[in-house]
HTH arsR-type domain-containing protein (Brevibacterium picturae), 119 residues
Amino acid sequence: MASTSDSTPVNAAVEQLLRNPEDNLEAISETADLFKALATPSRLKMLLVLAHGEATVTHIVESTELSQPLVSQHLKFLRGLHLVGVNRIGREAYYSLKDDHVAHIILDALAHTIEGHEH
């Protein structure tokens, strides 16, 4: 497996992108959209809740202290970016992260921030 200069493992597709970023501007654009999604404290709080597992809108509202309309609006946005999925059971909707990559990005960024404040 290839790696970046700081020994972060990457797959072959990412290695190719690192060598020739102009070859896949769509992937770069979608990655920028991911960072835009993570750029608001409200969405970041919601994604942290979902990093623990599936949650209903009610649970997300209670955990984040955000309003229900705002949570619903953000969930729609996050679903549009394919970061969050929904599993409907009866009348209840359970939201979850589509994959663990998003949780890793958030947790790595938080660790970076916290460690930066300790030095």
Residues 100-118 form the longest helix (19 residues). The CA atoms of residues 53 and 96 lie 6 Å apart. The chain has six helices and four strands. The two ends are 33 Å apart (CA to CA).
